[in-house]
Amino acid sequence: MGLVVVGNAPTALLEVLDLYKKGEIKLSSVIGVPVGFVGAAESKKALQQTEIPYLITEGPKGGTPIAVAAVNGLINLNKEWYNEFWAAI
Fold first, then answer.
1. Half-sphere exposure (Cβ direction) of 88: Cα atoms closer than 13 Å
2. Which of 28, 33, 49, 79 could disulfide-link 62, Cβ–Cβ 3.0 to 4.6 Å?
3. d(Cα 49, Cα 78) in Å, to the nearest integer?
């Protein structure tokens, strides 16, 4: 189980969803923020229609900087939790 992050190509997000449907990959969540006017919104909508936990942007907005910011946010949340957990013991 893993996290998949797509920040550019909508086709990459659609391929991830196809592989998931076929049972070829297992996912814990997807950050799907492809950018652009061709296929970006549609690929995000396809992700929304799955049971996979996800984070998306609306419409054509997205891209690598958004994907990196989302991953960094998750890392920082984990660091905060980790520090609070060990401080409480």
1. 6
2. 33
3. 27
